[in-house]
Predict the structure.
Amino acid sequence: MRHFSSEPVPLSLIETAIRCAASAPSGANQQPWTFVVVSDAAIKSRIRAAAEAEERESYEHRMTEEWLQALRPLGTDWRKPFLEDAPYLIVVFRQDYGLEGDRKVKHYYVQESVGIAAGFLLAALHLAGLATLTHTPSPMAFLGEILQRPKNERACLLIPVGYPSPGAEVPSIGKKGLSEVLILKS
């Protein structure tokens, strides 16, 4: 969903979804994630400007023609107004290692753990009746800087959240059928 309503979303819905995400299993139960919720218009504006700068560079110089061709049916480009339109942005950070004072603590299965938690988060937001978009501007170091996150955290997912705008249309994209993704061995 790339078109969000300005209708306010109760913060309690966001908190409940994050509570669900934080219940996800993780390597050694270290829970190597941080969810930063942004509703401040000035911060969202800074995030949009930085994301669009990275995206413009990607669309104009980093992406191959094959990649751009794959994106054409989705109608995307470097412009990301939804980063300001959505009432909330949730930035998912992975904690590559823990910090106990100045001591680094090894984390296990960080990417897998954060991926599961992000899946829980998206499902919970969907079940709450909210629209989302998984946005992954690359590189994402600007998010850690803008949101003043510690050196052990790396942004891995930027999720605009809100209600869809009236008349919003989701691109007509198909999904693989069950027979294409399910293999039964009995």
User: Anything to note?
Assistant: The chain has seven helices and six strands. The mean pLDDT is 95.
